[in-house]
Amino acid sequence: MLTEKAQAKINLTLDVLHKRPDGYHEVEMVMQTVDLSDHLQFQERADAEIVLTCTAPYIPLDQRNLVYQAAHLMRETYGIEKGIHIHIEKRIPVAAGLAGGSSDAAATLRGLNRLWKLGLSLDELAVLGAKIGSDVPFCIYGGTAIARGRGEQIERLPSVSPTWVVLVKPPIAVSTADVYGRLRADEIEHHPDTAGMVHALTTGDVKQISAGLGNVLENVTFAMYPEVERLKQQLLKFGAQGALMSGSGPTLFALVEREQKAVRICNALRGFSREVYLCRFF
Ligand code: ATP
Question: How far away, in angstroms, is 136 Cα from ligand 1 center?
């Protein structure tokens, strides 16, 4: 049996440059993986089936699951006829803006590459991953990177010191398509400074990084779910230097310099939210 971890991601910046003629949004985002991860186990089967099991009861286990799609794509592309059982131990909140499904798909491509001894490079796996979803290529590499295009064009950045991250997820599920559908790309007033964030990351200074956090989807999600904005205000009130919504939300995060302070913020948040996580850049 082989195991692989699938890390959650947060957006330190998320900018939408314009809407493209093909209907997609042209994005520019600084992405970072954190050490909150799903654990995947791969076991070969005697028959030719792809079988999924998962600890979370509400996730589809058929071709709607991105893990299934990744295993299917790998078998089709490389003419593999062996069956596979993949067990997903879910720890990343679902439909939360943390790319849990995309990261599971990326971990599946990495895991099956090892199990079936295909010898593919990360770049080759990222090309395959883009066929499943725009966030999958970043999740193949992990670490710190700028994502452009629809999110699938990755420029890797040097790794950053393992900053503490407090994550808090309001008890709602947000549809990414819905949020992008309501965004008016030509009416965005404040674009995050991607280059400034890249520079801040090289300093490793949490204050500077926090000052550069920005996500143009925040206002869209806040208008749909005012409780998300209220929770962001709580996070700031409890002493976070900066806070931001990840992806299309609703998960919010704050970067914190010292572990003790991060623990204090987590404890304070637990009075308001059942889903609070303490993790680090990974
Ligand atoms: P993103 O940040 O990329 O928008 P997300 O964190 O908001 O992703 P996911 O957790 O990836 O959202 O899940 C969104 C939907 O995808 C879920 O409602 C679920 O039914 C479906 N899905 C398919 N495969 C998976 C998977 N392996 N894990 C979680 N959800 C999955």
Answer: 12
Pocket perturbation via mutation, ligand 1, pick of 25, 39, 65, 92 by most ligand atoms within 8 A of CB: 65
The architecture that CATH gives domain 2-157 is 2-Layer Sandwich (3.30)
Kindly give the distance from the C-alpha atom of residue 101 to the centroid of ligand 1, in angstroms, as a whole number: 4
Mean pLDDT by 10 residues, the chain (282 residues): 97 95 94 98 96 96 98 97 97 95 98 98 98 97 97 95 95 92 92 97 94 97 96 93 95 96 96 93 94
Catalytic annotation, pick one of 38, 135, 169, 232: 135
- Please report how many Cα atoms fall inside a 13 Å half-sphere around the Cα of residue 25, on the Cβ side: 21
Known binding residue 249? Answer is no
What pTM did the predictor assign?
0.96
CATH 3.30.70.890 intervals, the chain: 164-280
- For residue range 36-69, list pLDDT tens digits in order: 999 999 999 999 999 999 999 999 999 999 999 9
Q: Is 118 annotated as a binding residue?
A: no
Q: What is the pLDDT of residue 241?
A: 87
Is the CATH number of domain 164-280 3.40.50.970? no
Show the ligand 1 pocket: residues with CB < 6 angstroms: 59-60, 64-67, 88, 94-102, 104, 135, 176, 247-248
- Please list the residue range(s) of the chain that carry CATH number 3.30.230.10: 2-157
Please report the DSSP string for 65-130 in residue order: SHHHHHHHHHHHHHT---EEEEEEE--SPTTSSS-HHHHHHHHHHHHHHHHTT----HHHHHHHHH
- The DSSP output letter for 38 is E
